[in-house]
Design goal:
154 residues, Aminopeptidase, 8-stranded mixed β-sheet, 4 helices, binds coenzyme A
């Protein structure tokens, strides 16, 4: 069933039947949550993957990414507020980076709110570097930082 399994947590790819659980968690994690339509569009794209992190039957996190040629684009990552700072964001990101390496990606890119210090720390811990800033990128006027890192299978 799962691409990854530990004693307590498992990761598998999102299916259409997971939509309600994903939306419920999305609304608790983001200021501007994605709509059902946005997740449905991701499910329909052959280059998009939404990885779901479960504690038994409970959805506790997810990460949406695109693989386009040799680039991995990270679009959305979230962990249930009551499960944060336990290494689960790191677990999701490691899982996706490892898979992308195995499927030929050589670099990863993402955008993050300039004021999202927690997410910035998470990404910097994976050696993502800031390579640009998009002014007023988000609907509420906050800037986005563009981050990048190389991917190698070493
Ligand atoms: C960002 C997010 C996914 C991190 O998930 P998490 O499971 O708490 O992250 P981890 O426990 O794996 O943290 C790994 C490291 O990232 C850094 N980090 C994570 N959250 C942090 C915070 N709030 N403040 C400072 N550093 C933080 C730390 O270096 C941490 O390591 P440490 O706990 O050993 O110090 C989570 O806070 C979240 O869902 N936030 C809301 C959605 C969001 O902002 N997503 C990112 C933009 S799309």
């Amino acid at each position: 069933m799962s691409a990854f399994a530990s004693e307590f947590f498992s990761i598998r790819v999102m299916l259409a039947g997971d939509l309600d659980a994903v939306l419920e968690l999305e609304r608790r994690c983001h200021v501007s949550p994605w709509s059902a339509q946005l997740f449905e569009e991701e499910l329909s794209r052959n280059y998009s993957t939404v990885d779901l992190l479960w504690q038994s039957q409970r959805l506790v996190g997810y990460l949406c990414s695109w693989q386009i040629c040799d680039e991995l684009h990270i679009l959305n990552v979230a962990v249930d507020p009551s499960f944060r700072r336990r290494g689960l964001g790191r677990l999701l990101l490691s899982h996706v980076l490892d898979r992308s390496c195995a499927s030929g990606c050589t670099r990863a890119l993402l955008e993050v709110r300039a004021g999202n210090s927690g997410a910035l720390c998470l990404y910097q811990g994976f050696d993502f570097k800031i390579i640009g800033r998009r002014a007023k990128y988000y609907p509420d006027g906050e800037d986005a930082l563009v981050m990048e890192r190389e991917i190698s299978c070493d």
